[in-house]
Amino acid sequence: MPAIAKRLSKAAAKSSLSKTTAKKPGPTPRGDLAPQRIAAILKGLDEAYPDVECALTHRSPWELLVATILSAQCTDVRVNMVTPELFRRFPTPAAMAKAKLSELEALIRTTGFFRNKAKSIQGAAKRVVEEFGGQVPRTLAELITVPGAARKTANVVLGVSFRLAEGVVVDTHVFRIAHRLGLAKGDRAPKVEQELMRAIPQDRWIDFSHQIIHHGRQVCIARKPKCDRCNLEALCHAKDKTWES
Ligand code: SF4
């Protein structure tokens, strides 16, 4: 076949392929949620944060549950300062269930909202003792019945202590960065969690949220993200980016 005929035949084949593709919109998400883009984001997170771990110091699921309740509106560093003495004084859920509320309040005072938190951790202790035989339960449905433990806390405990992925942890960092990366549009954490559960493969839910939390603390900070230091920059179209490659 002459060269010109070959080129025309190739062009015709290409055009008919693109027409065929255009006529058959598949179920694969496109744009921000395209699998290739999600895979690239996850790869970037793995490269930047390969050995990410929960920053709350703990020796058991119970200690992690308490530490996570205390971490509301408080830094992990501050929580890690109060928990050693708290668990020295009250080493088990049974001991904490019987503690004087005023003593619990004094021990956790510096974490803020200490009166409510003291009630929550004592309520959690009582529930764990009375309903779950002194052991932190291993399902989301059971965990969210524990005082002070909403979905975020339950997902932290299930993911970190038991490697069970029933949901995605959505804290302030995950909420913000999910929007910046176009992975979620919801205006409330539960909606964002549902969107992330659809967008991210389930076997990545646990590590994804820890990696994003680290990213939010170190690079993609709330006020002025450090986009010039971000290895996801080429994949990010956030309106408040501070640098564009
Ligand atoms: S490019 Fe900037 S806004 Fe986007 S994820 Fe990175 S730090 Fe955050």
3D structure, described in words:
The radius of gyration is 24 Å and the shape is elongated. 58% of the residues lie in helices and 0% in strands. The chain contains 12 helices and no strands. By secondary structure, it is mainly α. The site of iron/sulfur cluster (SF4) has 13 residues, from loops.
Task: Summarize this structure briefly.
The chain is mainly α. Helices cover 58% and strands 0% of the residues. Iron/sulfur cluster is lined by residues 180-181, 219-220, 225-227, 230, 232-233, 236, 238, 241.
Key structural traits:
single chain; 245 residues; mainly alpha; 0% strand; disordered N terminus; binds iron/sulfur cluster
Q: How far do the termini sit from each other?
A: 46 Å
Specify the helix fraction band. 55-70%
Q: What's the total number of strands?
A: 0
N-to-C order of helices and strands: HHHHHHHHHHHH
CA gyration radius, whole angstroms: 24 Å
Listed once per kind, the bound small molecules are:
iron/sulfur cluster
Mean pLDDT across all amino acids: 91
Largest sheet: none
Q: What class would the helix/strand composition place it in?
A: mainly alpha
Which geometry do the CA atoms define? Answer: elongated
Count, helices:
12
Q: Which blocks of ≥5 consecutive residues have pLDDT under 50?
A: 1-5, 7-26
**Percentage of β-strand residues:** under 5%
Topology diagram in text:
Blueprint: H1 3-23, H2 35-48, H3 61-70, H4 76-89, H5 93-97, H6 101-108, H7 114-132, H8 140-143, H9 151-162, H10 172-180, H11 189-199, H12 205-218
The protein binds iron/sulfur cluster.
Iron/sulfur cluster binds next to loops.
